[in-house]
Amino acid sequence: MQAKLMIRIVALGLLALLISPAVFAQERTKKPPQKPAIDLERMDSRKGLKPPSGPSFYIAPLEGSRLMFSVLLADGGGNTVAGTFTLQQIDVFEAVLQAAQAFALTDEKVGSGTPITTRLMEQHEWSLFVDVSKIGNQSRFYVSLITPQGRLTTEAGEITRGSKKEPSALLLDILSQVQAAKAGITPQQ
User: Fold this and answer.
1) What is the chain's Cα-based Rg?
2) What is the mean pLDDT of residues 15-22?
3) pLDDT value at position 117?
4) Contact 140, 133 (CB under 8 A)
5) Per-residue pLDDT for 44 more than 80?
6) How far is residue 72's CA from residue 132's CA, in Å, rounded to a whole number?
7) In angstroms, rounded to a whole number, what is the distance separating the alpha carbons of residues 140 and 132?
8) Torsion sign across C-alpha atoms 8, 10, 14, 16
């Protein structure tokens, strides 16, 4: 009888030893991990990085594929739309962007009192299109992206026709990002 009692006590003791580390381990994991404090101002001054602001565009080939691309468009107001596109669709996007750039630099369809807006898109690919609004010597771009997730249109900058200054607009950045992604160059962050 005493032997059975001793075996039970030893068994309960061993069981308690086995259970206690598991209980303590669970208690330790319940505490939320401490987040390191990030000083954005210091980070900006050291590396020249700034948090993203305003409209933006991102494109990259999907991992392991040069035929599929991930695309993201943001309007700068917290709205984004993302999708996955084939190389053929990206080729169409590139052609539409190039046509928008070329059209923006011409004096064709320019409004004098009110802007005239022209939509550039491929007849069979409606996922990405560009509206060019012209008044005087200004051409403004609006890029739209339609995916199963939703639709978003964002301002994509403006250029001044006839200016000696190098044109700078988000549309031109989008075009260079599309060309870099097709070439397999990863975007700089």
Assistant:
1) 29
2) 47
3) 95
4) yes
5) no
6) 21
7) 6
8) positive
Res 111: pLDDT: 84
Give yes or no for residue 115 having a pLDDT over 90: yes
CATH classification at residue 91: 2.30.31
Give me the residue label for tokens 């994509």.
156
For residue 105, what are the domain limits? 56-182
Give the number of other Cβ atoms within 10 Å of residue 89's Cβ.
Answer: 18
Please give the angle made by the CA atoms of 146, 134 and 166, to the nearest 5 degrees.
90
**Number of structural domains found in the chain:** 1
Q: How many CB atoms lie within 10 A of CB 76?
A: 14
pTM of the model as a whole: 0.68
Residue 188 token pair: 């700089």
Helix (H, G, I), strand (E, B) or coil at 109: coil
**40 falls within a domain:** no
Residue type present at position 152: L
Q: What is the pLDDT of residue 95?
A: 96
Contact call for residues 141 and 170 (beta carbons, < 8 A): yes
The arrangement of strands across the sheet holding 116-122 comes to: 116-122, 125-135, 138-147, 150-160
Q: What share of the chain is helix, strand, coil (3-state, %, to 5)?
A: 35, 30, 30
Q: In the predicted model, is pLDDT for residue 67 greater than 50?
A: yes
